[in-house]
Amino acid sequence: MRKRIVIKLSGSLFGMDDEKILKDYATFFVRVSKIYQPIIIAGGGKIARHYISHARSSGADESTLDELGIEVSRLNAKLLIYAIQDKAYPHPPTNLKEVTHAADSGLIVITGGLHPGQSTNATAALIAEKVRASVFLNATDVDGVYDSDPNKNKNAKKFKQIELKKLRNMLVHQESIAGGYDLMDIVALKVIERSKIKTRIIKADIKTLEKAIKGSPEGTEIILT
Ligand code: UTP
Q1: Which atom of ligand 1 lies nearest, measured to the CA of 183?
Q2: pLDDT one-digit tens code per residue, 96-120
Q3: How far is the CA of 45 from the centre of ligand 1 (A)?
Q4: Confidence band for 73, pLDDT divided at 50, 70 and 90
Q5: What is the per-residue pLDDT across 193-225, written as a single tens digit (0 to 9) for each?
Q6: What is the largest CA-CA distance in the chain?
Q7: In terms of DSSP bridges, do strands 199-203 and 220-223 run parallel, antiparallel, or are they unpaired?
Q8: CA 183, CA 205: separation in Å to the nearest integer?
């Protein structure tokens, strides 16, 4: 059996006007699937945030907003499924049992969110645990974990490695409202810790992903002690 690689793909990739990007990812994942089985989780991105903020202003409750985010991430997942065509499992699984079933088909699996109350990062960690992935790559719109926000602080320093406990301390004060999750969250870290999942936070681009899949030390590695 091929080793399974779980990849969280930033929602930012799906909101772009450049339709070629997803086609390039599709070609890339089909190539990767000759050696590994990719299990991909699509983020919601700015389209999810748009819907969430719209519905929030109408007074919708937080779990309803989460459901909206999940629906958008599933639409994003479908775009990638259509781009990959018959090498992809034909629809996004909606719970962990379905993910297992889809993974057993041997096809490339693309899912969106699963449960309200968590981010696609947490979902991706749970999926990595469930399918016994050899690695979990969180491909996001920054190229790793920094000691402060690199968009706000030009002296921000990137960690090549970060202890899980230290990352957790950094995240403790993060807000957990719909559409507001960041690089990782507490649920994701808990799952990574309990199942000792090899995890790396990397930039969402094909070259970086390819290098990370080959074992190159891209982005930030989460150290489990
Ligand atoms: P994301 O986690 O993808 O947020 O899901 P994001 O900010 O777009 O992340 P990036 O840009 O991909 O890195 C969007 C929203 O959908 C809900 C949450 O409200 C989340 O903020 N969601 C998603 C869930 O409730 N459960 C899930 O399993 C996934």
Answers
A1: 13
A2: 999 999 999 999 999 999 999 988 9
A3: 7
A4: very high
A5: 999 999 999 999 999 999 999 999 999 999 998
A6: 49
A7: antiparallel
A8: 16
Q: Could you give the CA distance from residue 82 to residue 87 in angstroms, rounded to a whole number?
A: 10
Percent of the chain whose pLDDT exceeds 90: 77
Beta bridge partners of 8: 41, 138
Q: Which helix (H) or strand (E) holds 48?
A: helix 45-57
Sorted by where each starts, the structural domains of the chain and their CATH numbers stand as: 3-223 (3.40.1160.10)
* Nearest atom in ligand 1 to 122's CA: 28
Q: Which of 197, 199, 198, 216 is nearest to 208 (CA)?
A: 216
Residue 179 clears pLDDT 60, i.e. is over it: no
pTM given for the model = 0.93
Ligand 1 nearest-atom number relative to CA 141: 13
Q: Is 1 exposed, middle or buried (0-12, 13-18, 19+ CB in 10 A)?
A: exposed
- Measuring from each residue's beta carbon to the nearest atom of ligand 1, which residues come in under 6 Å? 10-12, 43-45, 48, 65-66, 69-70, 73, 113-120, 123, 140, 178-179, 181
- Compute the distance from residue 182 Cα to the ligand 1 centre, in Å: 9
